[in-house]
Amino acid sequence: MLVVENLGKSYESIGQPLRVLEDLSLTLQPGQSAAIVGPSGSGKTTLLQILGALDTPDQGRVRINDTDPFDLDQKQRAIFRNQTIGFVFQDHHLLPQLSVIENVLIPALAVGAATDAHAERAQSLIEAVGLKDRSTHLPGELSGGERERVAIARALLMRPTLILADEPTGNLDAKTAAGITDVLLRLQADENAVLVTVTHSETLADAMQTQFELAQGRLVERAAA
Ligand SMILES: Nc1ncnc2c1ncn2[C@@H]1O[C@H](COP(=O)(O)OP(=O)(O)OP(=O)(O)O)[C@@H](O)[C@H]1O
């Protein structure tokens, strides 16, 4: 479960500080999916970075399964992030010199060694995202949509309770984007995880259970279509 209370965030800029998030609150239950939409510069990525404990808020609290990552020291926070949060980025951030399966195993390697159980999980996720025959390929040998599937498999390796996706279908054609959306939602449902996706795509936003517009630093729930 994700609970965000009264979040505030400003950036220092020449002259006045830039207030990006203002008294922002949000609660999502396990299994819930939400899209965050809003104009460019409205603070969507900033919010996602704070939800992922990659950036710190100036005010407010974030609780993920009753833990506030900002109560933890840096090392504990990194471990918590690794075990609780899965990130899917638009530009997928795969390591080009590592194979598909090695990329999927990165979260396990980051906290020690990949066990046989991790390797089995990685293989089953690679199958689940439709890349069974590609596990020894390098990212450079894959299409953009296939690379995004690898990024999704990697995000799911540690069975996160919170999945954060930043424009996961950003540079993809409509058919490929629809396939990526299906895979993401299927794996999220399998794990009963919370999914928060930031997007400019109305199609992707419509695939989520709930949609929020980020405006003037706060989230406003959009009425169901
Ligand atoms: N590190 C930073 N320092 C100063 N200002 C920043 C920083 N990061 C973001 N900003 C500013 O904060 C505002 C919100 O940025 P953010 O990237 O969160 O918006 P966004 O809604 O994700 O935009 P987009 O849809 O274009 O990706 C913008 O005005 C941006 O210029």
Automatic annotation (TrEMBL):
Its EC number is 3.6.3.-. Keywords: ATP-binding, Hydrolase, Lipoprotein, Nucleotide-binding, Transport. One of its GO terms (molecular function) is transmembrane transporter activity. GO terms for cellular component: membrane protein complex; plasma membrane. InterPro entries: AAA+_ATPase, ABC_transporter-like_ATP-bd, ABC_transpr_LolD-like, MacB-like_ATP-bd, P-loop_NTPase. PROSITE patterns: ABC_TRANSPORTER_2. It holds the Pfam family ABC_tran. Residues 2-225 form the ABC transporter domain. Belongs to the ABC transporter superfamily. Macrolide exporter (TC 3.A.1.122) family. PANTHER family: IMPORT ATP-BINDING PROTEIN, LIPOPROTEIN-RELEASING SYSTEM ATP-BINDING PROTEIN LOLD. This is Lipoprotein-releasing system ATP-binding protein LolD. The lineage of its organism: Bacteria, Pseudomonadati, Planctomycetota, Planctomycetia, Pirellulales.
